[in-house]
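Changelog note: in this version the structure field was regenerated for every chain. One regenerated record is shown below for reference.
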Amino acid sequence: MASGGHAPHTDEQLREEALAWLARLRNSGAPQDHADFERWYMQSPRHADIYDAVLDSWERTGRAAHTPVGRAHRAGKSGLRSRGARLGLAAAAAAALVVVCLPLVREPASPSQYSVRLATLLGEVRTDTLPDGSLATLDTDSRVHIRFDSKTRRVALERGRARFAVARDTRPFIVEAAQGTVVAQESLIDIDLRGDVMTVSLLRGTADVRPNRAAPPTSPVYPLQSGHRLVLGDASRAISPEPLRDAETRWPSGMLSFEDVPLGQVIAALNRYNARQVRLADATTGERRFTGTFKAKDPEGFARLVAAMFELTISRDGAANLELREATPSK
């Protein structure tokens, strides 16, 4: 791989780097490796194109076609056009090579029956391959209950956030939460549950979203198109599809990205990954608008970044939590 941050000048050199990354990610689940991969992948469109081509070639060997990374790559080839969105899938596929979500409880299964509960701990982001070939990627501190039978594929999102790369199947893929139900086929979809608010983000394919505020058939169905999201349970906003930002799709890589978001909201997202918390001394500081990308599990690095951006000072308490405070004007 290129050293010193300089991109190579030929496609052949880029292809060698892509092959090296594929081998490296197959043998390492270290967060630093995935962070380094994201920086390499996002250097230029050519980096992303050549890495995707390497995955295509690897898949066509046959043995790869039935692996998690092969299925993840096939699931997203046709729909993700921006590098940011493609990176989310590439990172999820890379993670599928090395990280498998361990079931909490697995019930006896038959060829048409499958039931399992999956969960992640604080700071974990893991991917599991389901019996139908779909991929389920769970964000930090998340839990799902997956139940397949001969007629439906059902997932109950009980806590946190999950991404589903839904494989083709005659059975509908149904994700349920307290706020609503999502029905998808051959889609790449994120579902985020935060308190009473559920956000459905569609990266590829189509999906139907039904709020649970009224019983079927009276409750409306909202068709969701690729590149849009829908927020349920937020009384302050109408239920209406809105454009999905690339920054919102990158979390499976271990990086968090935000575009013009209140700092307080950004800090809350960071703190979901870490026992060591970042806090604001003054709540009004949280109203500042933040745009940037950072490692989800590096609160120290994030604090330094924000302090430099907004001229804040950093202090630490006895538990090593980080407090950001407005700098006192010099007299």
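Spot check on this record: The longest strand covers residues 180-194. The chain has a mean pLDDT of 80.
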